[in-house]
Amino acid sequence: MRDLPLARVYQFIEPGPVVLLTTAERGHLNVMTMSWHMMVEFEPPLIACIVGEGDYSFAALRRTGECVIAIPAAELASTVVGIGNCSGRDVDKFARFGLTARPARLVTAPLIAECFVNLECRGIDMRLVRRYDMFVLEVIKGWIDPARRNARTLHHRGFGRFAVDGETISFRSRMR
After folding, report:
1. Residue 126: which domain range?
2. What pLDDT does residue 150 have?
3. InterPro entries given for it (predicted)?
């Protein structure tokens, strides 16, 4: 064993797939790349996520309390990275990256047609936003593209490196 620099810990405790988070405020749509999120509860599904105060999406999410978490397949890797490397302050990311915004049913933020899962979310706990930029969101409506059942996801490994999920193994669950 060798020392692991603490700044690299996140590369090994990666919480899940890289996702796209959309917001809408006063008719302006935005999308950001996000990899810092985790499930908090199963029913209702609660997701905690970090949206930094410096992110253009932060103000819209804080004011509206609504967003969509869209899960892209690995085929969108270059788009996902491109979205993460520019700001909605400067560019219309939907136009630049050829994303198709679709109306959500319960929130004003748009779904992304190119993503195989879209989760409409409302903020239910904002107490940790000021201190940690952490929003706790309740998924209030979910969408899945049945034609893309086996889509593979991206997982951020740090410093421009990503892993693509692979083989799935199954074990008998004893959970009810």
Report:
1. 6-164
2. 86
3. Flavin_Rdtase-like_dom, Flavoredoxin, Split_barrel_FMN-bd
CATH, residue 24: 2.30.110.10
Summarize pLDDT for 91-121 with one digit per residue, the tens. 999 999 999 999 999 999 999 999 999 999 9
Q: 102: exposed, middle or buried (C-beta count within 10 Å: 0-12, 13-18, 19+)?
A: middle
Q: Which of 13-22, 83-92, 145-154 has the lowest mean pLDDT?
A: 13-22
Residue 175 lies in a domain: no
Beta bridge partners of 115: none
pLDDT at residue 53 is higher than 80: yes
Nearest to 110 by CA among 30, 8, 36: 30
Backbone torsion region of residue 20, taken as left when φ is above 0, otherwise alpha when ψ lies between -120 and 50, otherwise beta? beta
